Known about the structure:
Elements: E1 15-18, E2 21-24, H1 30-42, H2 55-65, H3 78-91, H4 96-115, H5 136-146, H6 156-169, E3 174-175, E4 181-183, H7 211-224, H8 229-235, H9 257-288, H10 291-310, H11 312-316, H12 320-329, H13 336-351, H14 354-357, H15 361-375, H16 384-388, H17 403-418
Antiparallel strand pairs: 1-2, 3-4
Amino acid sequence: MPPPHLEVPEKRCLHATLGMSSITWLDFNDADRQRALDVLDLFREKGTVDELGIGTVRDSLADILFPGTSTIMTRIRYYFFIPWIYQKLERKKVASAEIGQLGRRDEIKLIDALRTGPDTAGLIGLEAGKDLKRVPSTTYWQGLHVLGFRRFPGSRDAYHRSLDRFHRDGGDVIRGDDGQVVVGGRRFNWDPAMPQSPTGFPTGATFALTPQEADYFKERVLGAAPASFFAQLLIRLDEFEDGDLPWDEPAAKELVGQAAEDLRHARNFSDAMHGAALTYNLMLAEKQKAAERRAEYGSRIDDWAANVQLRRSALASWDRAAFWATVEQAGRPIRPLTRAFIDAWLDAVIDGDPNAVVRDASMRDRIRKRERQLKGPLARLENDRALERWGGASSAEALDFRWNRPTRSFLRDLKAALVTA
């Protein structure tokens, strides 16, 4: 059985294995598959696991702030690499039965080309090479559709299966599974306005965007989500300062309208809920009788409480009903137990003394029960063997909503192409 806190959707098509856990789904949904793959990758990154089950709220806000992104993306030019690979294969009229294998072959060729370039930061498959299990197209597939690079509406597997009919129809119509025409007119699997691949691609490929590509990406975001914080950052790209958190950016101080409201919700949620994560880690350190870790988390909690006091006015005036409405509009289902836990913590922190909350027996009991809801017998606060595997930090960092990965990298690449070009 998968760990309970994965909250795996029912009847989806994916088989993945992590340690002793295995997930198998029977049907697929592209967005759900990407979300589950993101979760599985987070298990491999120290300190990022969703220990208290607030990930659906975090990810809903991240979808709103930075649409078309996911935590396992690395460099922005993959948005172009993947369509270029498939467009080349489409021009050769590669059959459905062969497209998966040949697409993977060309994605491995891309790894080899990027390895020889001047910049390998964020190169997917740098170490694995031809043994890479998840090629970049699986990671970027959903984002390509959200931002309009990809016109084909289905999953990557569905796209592969559709190519025989696409070649047969000359791209003029879209047919349903029964072979009947659903949409007439010219069909494009990829946006025809997208910049073309360089001559000889993937030979000589690098992560450096051309100004034309950077402009195109900017237009895609502005077209898909003009009210998003991401769009506002791109409009003010020359002001980008590479801050540690999204609200540290100069553009954040000039926001108005929906983008300002969305960022306010995200910052308030991050600032308030960070205390719950730190308290959970402090409780683990206390149970482990680890004096050094107890001191570390005690100090971090003091810093957190001081920050909450500084932002008390903003938190007290926070429209929580509007917050939950925003989260729900993102389309990720929020379970009642998740909302109840979050509301209880926010009430205690905003209406009371944050320093007292972390010591309050009833709040600590809520954290203990929450972990048990998510992990069952594997809860660290109740299972000494599970506690032994604690690495000293679990969900201990402030929520940044995909800012540090991958958005900052994207903005660096875009600024290098547009502002310093």
